[in-house]
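#help-structures

NK: newbie question. if I give both the sequence and a SMILES, will the prediction place the ligand too? trying with MGD
OV: yes, paste both and it writes out the complex. here, I ran yours:
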Amino acid sequence: MDDTPFRYHSSHWGAFRARRQGARLEITPLEQDPDPSPILQNFATVLDHPARLRQPLVRQGWLQDGPGPDPRRGSDRYVPIDWDRALDLAAAELARQGAGPELPARGPLPGAHVFGGSYGWSSAGRFHHAQSQVHRFLNTVFGGYVSSVDTYSSAAGEVIMELVLGNAVRMSRDHDCWAGIEQHADLVLAFGGLPLRPMQIASGGNSFHTARGHMERAAARGCRFVSISPLDDDLPDLPGAERIRPRPATDVALMLGMAWQLQAEGLVNRDYLARYTSGYERFLPYLTGAEDGTPKTPDWAEAITGVPAATIRDLARRAAAGRTHVTATYSLQRAENGEQPIWMALVLAAMLGQWTAPGGGFSYSLGSMGSTGKPPLALPLPTLPQGRNRVPDFIPVARIADLLLHPGQAYTYKGETRSYADIRLVYWAGGNPFHHHQDLQRLSRAFARPDTIIVHDSVGTATAAHADLVFPSTLTLERSDIGAASHDPLLIPMQQLAEPLAGTRDDFAIFSALAARLGCETPYTEGLDAAGWQARLYRRTQEALARMDLPAPEFAAFMAGDPIALPVQEGGARMARFHADPEAAGLATETGRIEIWSDRVARAGLPGHPCWLPPREWLGSDLARRFPFQLVANQPRGKLHSQLDFGPTSMAGKRDGRDCARMNAADAARLGLAAGDTVLLRNDRGGALVALQPSEAVMPGVIQLSTGAWYAPRRLTPPGEDAEITVCVNGNPNILTADIAASGLSQGCIGQLSLVAVTRWTGPVPPVVPHAEILPRG
Ligand SMILES: Nc1nc2c(c(=O)[nH]1)N[C@H]1C(S)=C(S)[C@@H](COP(=O)(O)OP(=O)(O)OC[C@H]3O[C@@H](n4cnc5c(=O)[nH]c(N)nc54)[C@H](O)[C@@H]3O)O[C@H]1N2
Ligand SMILES: Nc1nc2c(c(=O)[nH]1)N[C@H]1C(S)=C(S)[C@@H](COP(=O)(O)OP(=O)(O)OC[C@H]3O[C@@H](n4cnc5c(=O)[nH]c(N)nc54)[C@H](O)[C@@H]3O)O[C@H]1N2
Ligand SMILES: [Mo]
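OV: that's the protein plus ligand as structure tokens.
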């Protein structure tokens, strides 16, 4: 395609119009988007970027020695091969692992040894969604696969919310709480802040970035936003904005201090507790100290959090005096004992008892996702059927390294004891575990274990550099699709913007070709091509639109036209029904109420009420003497995760190609560090080289390094030391984070918080590894 006219497309960070100008894309956000995301510009240079994969690749060691465990994964070279040979090699290995049309009707399925969790964000289209495609493929050819449950976003929080509230999504996110806050709230207590940075994103699409406007209008009306976070820029500069900086991981102590004050001053809404909750009387002895001799007073909380007791008392009184909304970000629970702050935030909101009034109450993840706090759609979306997974086995998603390293080993999840499967084949499409997982050197050791690893991606990620067979996929920009998401009011024709780069194929085409070689083509494709599938998926939404007497164009007209406005649900939120009639519309918890005490949590081995459980790595632990800084590894401003890390918005946030870490200016001065210095962050798991940015916005004792730099481990001897350690020279924080579970209840990821030491890298600075060289080719 030469230069093209403007066409529509969509991404997790927004819908847009674009046209091709030579190898670049000119991108304009949707006119109606009040606050478009700069991340859109990362698409501008991707079409022919050197990081793109242009040919199937096979790992040299696998080609020579055949399938089997191999510690060379991650440091081997790759041989380009043609498509037919690559597909033959892959199909032969899949067949050896048991794939094919004849699967046992009962008894063990070959898929019981295949990990197809394939966690990751893929791209936004409803049909080409890579994770859905790989699941459908594995269900077709293996009868199923070992899957994964929960997310890296929210596992500890999701599990605790399910047990004590019924369901996190339906109960606390699926309602119009932004509108309520804008019009009615007096005070918003934002644990983890309400940062515009993460709210750029919503899974599947985010056409209208409305959070800034809601907050500005609320603040102009007099609503006060209090950001409780180690980073001051986790809340935009609103009139009257307040910022409180507890030590990271101590929010639950701050909340308990507030709760104690409410209880002591008779500010608890007893009616709300009686009507809508259960178990307060079993929590109270812990709060007052009758149980353990330690009253959870604001003074007690000050010693843990570093927040003055007077501030905590004042917050409690103000929260009880007006209409208060309590919200907690995902980040709080991506930490050891991450269940506790989310549960306690819910309990605090219940004690305030204002959830029955608009603008009051509780929400989870309002500051984490552009979709939270918006009403859900009133009609079904086009959805690719994934088929049936007949393998019942799964892992909590963040236990991937344990699964591969310890087949047969027992672990707990939601109070059950389970054991890890014996995995021989790993298939990943649409995710980047060497972005998302913790303790990446351990993950490398885990990836040495299977017989074979197959990865599809459009770029040469560190995950591809651990695979045996790598298939180069097209970009979303190079294909047509349907853009839609559960809380986004537009259905978007995602119009192809460029011809596929030579040598790449759609994931669907790759799976179709493999299915054909395995004798499973028809069950996989059902005789349809990509456009045929999209027309079929679209029909369901089109019919629903027609039933509602809304414009419902034929598929071809829709794909050639403008985005369609979709109806959203008005009223009827699940929590509102519960509040209207707690007997008839009880929650899906054991007691039907909000559980301040949970028997199921107690049976799973944790205390039965929310409580302060210090993690291993926080500023108050012994380990902080060796590693005195709390690393906050949060979401990157200029991209989604590792995606398009080489794009202009992302690169503008780096210094000489290396990711930047921010620390408090006084801490930097004390360590003799200046802006732009190359510094080493390290702990017992490894090191990361970053460029330093001193900043007043970061609380003392904290160093913030967002995720997203492409993992490039090198053996290096730190200045003044005599032994080599492994250092990510590009600045990926996940070489430093711990691969342990939030708890044995949820097994959630704890990537947000760990402890590190910070030193200047003196002497020659090791070069960064360019994106095109992460996977060594040729
Ligand atoms: N330390 C720390 N770690 C974290 C977090 C943290 O806060 N701290 N956050 C966690 C969270 S919340 C998440 S959700 C995870 C995110 O982790 P991931 O979702 O795994 O990260 P992405 O970079 O989005 O990976 C998506 C991959 O899919 C590829 N891709 C995109 N489109 C397509 C396609 O059409 N086909 C194919 N085959 N591939 C495609 C992209 O190129 C990219 O490599 O990270 C987690 N990791
Ligand atoms: N630009 C951009 N936006 C994104 C993403 C992205 O990659 N890039 N990823 C998306 C995804 S998949 C997800 S799941 C969400 C994640 O949403 P979140 O997990 O909410 O986002 P984070 O940026 O990781 O964390 C938000 C803030 O929490 C604060 N924080 C960390 N630890 C603590 C603590 O112990 N106490 C308190 N009070 N605050 C703490 C940090 O200062 C951090 O800036 O973001 C989404 N949005
Ligand atoms: Mo996430």
